[in-house]
Each structure stands twice: as C-alpha cells, then as structure tokens.
Automatic annotation (TrEMBL):
Origin species: Rotaria magnacalcarata
Spans annotated as Disordered: 29-80
Domain of life, per lineage: Eukaryota
Basic and acidic residues bias: start-end ranges: 29-50, 61-80
Name of the protein described by the UniProt record: Uncharacterized protein
Amino acid sequence: LDRDVQQQTTRKQECERFLQQNQNDLRATERDLERVTRSCKDKQRMREQAIRTCQTSASQVDRRRAAQTDIDRQLSEAQN
C-alpha cells in the first residue's frame, strides 16, 4: 500500500513537472509569436510609410512637371 501511494505521489509530481514545463513552453512560444507579430507590424508600417512617401514624391513631380509645361507653353507663346 505504501508503495502504491509512493508511486502515485511520484506520478503526480512527474505530471506536475510536465504540466509546468508545458506551461513554460507555451509562454515562451506566446512571447516569440508576440515578438514576430510586432516585427511584422513594424515592417508593414515602414512599408506603408515608404509607399506614402513615394506617392507624395510622385504627386510633387507631377505638379512641378505640369507647372513647367505651363511655363514652357507661356514662353513659347510669348516668343511667337
């Protein structure tokens, strides 16, 4: 009987250690996932900012090109 109790106690302790290890592994995995998620979100924000910057630059170039075309047209008309 004592031997059975001791075996059950040992099994219970092993189960508790196993459970604790699994919980620790799960927390570590959650931290890793959170880190990867943050990294992905940071990269996405940087990508979106780069796209906005490119769009702004393209718009500025288009406006300047249109203004220069208008100036060129005015100069051409003035010379004629």
